[in-house]
Task: structure prediction
Amino acid sequence: MKELLLIIVAYLIGSVPTALIISKNFFGVDIRDYGSGNMGATNTFRVLGSRYGTVVMILDILKGAVAVGLYNFLPYYFGSENELQRTNFMIGLGLSAVLGHIFPIWANFKGGKGVATLFGMILAIQPIVALSCVGVFLLVLYITRYVSLSSILASIFLPVCVLWIWNEHETLYRIFALIVALLVIFTHQKNIGRILRGVESRVPILKHRDKRKARRRN
Result:
């Protein structure tokens, strides 16, 4: 019963509409009426700029990490003999937060794609794997400035890390990594289409680098 209550709390944490709160309080607009219509960090970068996009991304990451940390309210999971049960419960808490971000009760169930919250969840469960994925994310973002493509490739790298590089033995964790990769690809179908057509928006970062390249070409 206590586990179920914490799962619900995790969902409510994930449902906090950070992008919507910031867009309405600082700009007087609904972020879902602009750009891709998505209430996530990628669209916030696109519509409100890198400063507010970064804030939303950090807050969305924290939602996943805080939700996973709710297991600390149950002393049963503290012992090393309960490591398997603890990991499974942490995954359940994190997924509940991600579900809340995608279908937020506080915002008419129209949220974001959950990538940042997923990262926060993985960061809390397995920091090394999370940091490996964020390395891929930042590298792709630096090269392309596509947050969507960076998210997709980082998510694909997750099962690579879990199954082969770090060779995690927990079955549920391995299945979870595969599901995450498929989920991110599925939720980014429109982005993939726009990338293939060459019309996907790039985030407004690294402008100075692009200006230098443009000057060199001229």
Observations:
- The radius of gyration is 18 Å.
- The chain has a mean pLDDT of 88.
- Residues 40 and 112 are 4 Å apart (CA to CA).
- Residues 2-217 form one domain.
